[in-house]
């Protein structure tokens, strides 16, 4: 395809107005990379001049039934672009989930079954709607165009990309050089994700930094199909509450958006003062100028806890309510003074005398007895305010309050 044909839609130069520059600033807030910025400015200018919304695409594979704050980094960006008047496409990868995204993997990722995908997809969009405006969101499933493609269409699609280009991908290169198997079906994943962009005629696709290769494939395939190439926007991967690794359920450093308000607020208050600023940039809807002013006040001696409280309340209010955010702060302050929350689960158990590990597990205070033992070793278990460390303890019949860690409480009646 000639360069003239590729850029035929950009032959008309539209004015770069103040609104276009404001939209560019919103686009770039907190982003890792915008490719190609000049092309995106041209798209924004054309959109404003012709009053035609741009098509903004985000694809998520429903590999788990719930969403954590790490996922909302790109959802927040989608909402910002949605508020500018553009069309947001929330794409559920029900077809690509059956392949399994190899991004960042050092081994073949097991594909999900149709049944697993259906269960996860049920709650995915419901949770995403806590960030996006459902009335202005186009929801699509990529099985719409991937299933009808068939074997013949798949072969024709595969002919548009070379193995050499696939092996430019970092995780494929490492596995190939290390002698770690790469299944042929894994090459299909970036191709199918790229074909989504063709099917949807997207102007911009969002993703985490680990998705850059897949996003670029979409850009190249659009050119192959005679479309104007999409721009791509990568967002940083949110660091988890441990301050080390990216937020992940497997790392147990996540904050789920469906978690109880008190738990959500408590976890946000536990992050480091330095990490708080990254959370403000990527998760808060406060203007950047206001965040910069907060930093100045902290540098001048103000307690960063004041702003961490504001962050925690903003996030809790978004996913629950303002009233829940206020109550979470009260609960947090009460616990910080050594108090027990007013609203804790009440559990009735039998089998006294019961081993402490089993008691904690049966009361759903820990997921396993091994986790119970770990908390006991670390001094993280209290019975009626007294720390317990004896792993062989047999708890007699009675009613008492047990605390595990800073945020897990239960009033237990054991008989």
TrEMBL record:
Detail which positions bind ATP: 249
Q: Please state every residue range assigned to the domain named RNA-binding S4.
A: 354-415
- For the keyword Protein biosynthesis, the answer is yes
Extract the Gene3D superfamilies matched here: HUPs, RNA-binding S4 domain, Tyrosyl-Transfer RNA Synthetase
Q: Has the keyword Cytoplasm been applied to this entry?
A: yes
Pfam families according to UniProt: S4, tRNA-synt_1b
Location, primary (coarse class): cytoplasm
The entry's localization annotation reads: Cytoplasm
Catalytic activity, as annotated = tRNA(Tyr) + L-tyrosine + ATP = L-tyrosyl-tRNA(Tyr) + AMP + diphosphate + H(+)
Give the residue ranges of motif 'HIGH' region.
62-71
Motif location ('KMSKS' region)?
A: 246-250
| GO MF term list | ATP binding; RNA binding; tyrosine-tRNA ligase activity
Origin superkingdom: Bacteria
This protein's UniProt keywords: Aminoacyl-tRNA synthetase, ATP-binding, Cytoplasm, Ligase, Nucleotide-binding, Protein biosynthesis, RNA-binding
Q: EC annotation?
A: 6.1.1.1
* GO cellular component labels: cytosol
For this chain's UniProt record, which GO biological process terms are given?
Answer: tyrosyl-tRNA aminoacylation
Q: How does it assemble?
A: Homodimer.
Function noted in UniProt:
Catalyzes the attachment of tyrosine to tRNA(Tyr) in a two-step reaction: tyrosine is first activated by ATP to form Tyr-AMP and then transferred to the acceptor end of tRNA(Tyr).
The family annotation for this protein states: Belongs to the class-I aminoacyl-tRNA synthetase family. TyrS type 2 subfamily.
Q: What is this protein called?
A: Tyrosine--tRNA ligase
């Amino acid at each position: 395809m000639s360069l003239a044909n590729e850029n035929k839609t950009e032959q008309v130069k539209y004015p770069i107005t103040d609104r276009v520059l404001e939209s560019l600033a919103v686009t770039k807030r907190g982003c890792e990379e915008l490719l190609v910025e000049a092309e995106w400015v041209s798209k924004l200018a054309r959109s404003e001049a012709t009053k035609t919304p741009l098509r903004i695409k985000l694809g998520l594979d429903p590999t788990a039934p719930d969403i954590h704050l790490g996922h909302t980094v790109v959802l927040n960006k989608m909402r910002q672009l949605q508020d500018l008047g553009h069309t947001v496409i929330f794409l559920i990868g029900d077809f690509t989930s059956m392949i399994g995204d190899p991004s960042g993997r050092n081994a073949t990722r097991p594909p999900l079954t149709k049944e697993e995908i259906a269960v996860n997809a049920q709650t995915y969009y419901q949770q995403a709607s806590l960030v996006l405006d459902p009335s202005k969101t186009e929801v699509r499933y990529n099985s719409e165009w991937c299933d009808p493609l068939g074997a013949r269409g798949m072969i024709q699609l595969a002919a548009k990309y070379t193995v050499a280009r696939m092996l430019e991908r970092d995780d494929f290169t490492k596995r190939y050089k290390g002698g770690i198997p790469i299944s042929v079906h894994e090459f299909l994943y970036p191709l199918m994700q790229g074909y989504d962009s063709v099917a949807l005629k997207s102007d911009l696709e969002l993703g985490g930094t680990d998705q850059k290769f897949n996003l670029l494939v979409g850009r190249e395939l659009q050119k192959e199909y005679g479309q104007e190439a999409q721009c791509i926007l990568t967002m940083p991967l949110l660091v988890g509450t441990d301050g080390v690794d990216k937020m992940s359920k497997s790392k147990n450093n996540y904050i789920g958006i469906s978690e109880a308000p008190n738990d959500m607020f408590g976890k946000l208050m536990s992050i480091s003062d330095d990490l708080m600023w990254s959370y403000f940039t990527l998760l808060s809807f406060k203007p950047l100028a206001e965040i910069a002013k907060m930093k100045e006040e902290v540098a001048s001696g103000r307690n960063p806890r004041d702003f961490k409280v504001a962050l925690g309340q903003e996030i809790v209010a978004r996913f629950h309510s303002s009233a829940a955010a206020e109550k979470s702060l009260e609960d947090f302050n009460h616990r910080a003074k050594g108090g027990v929350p007013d609203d804790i689960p009440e559990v009735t158990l039998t089998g006294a005398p019961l081993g402490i590990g089993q008691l904690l597990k049966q009361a759903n205070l820990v997921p396993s007895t091994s986790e119970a033992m770990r908390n006991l070793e670390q001094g993280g278990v209290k019975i009626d305010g007294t720390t317990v460390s004896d792993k062989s303890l047999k708890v007699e019949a009675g009613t008492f309050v047990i605390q595990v860690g800073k945020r897990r409480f239960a009033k237990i009646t054991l008989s």
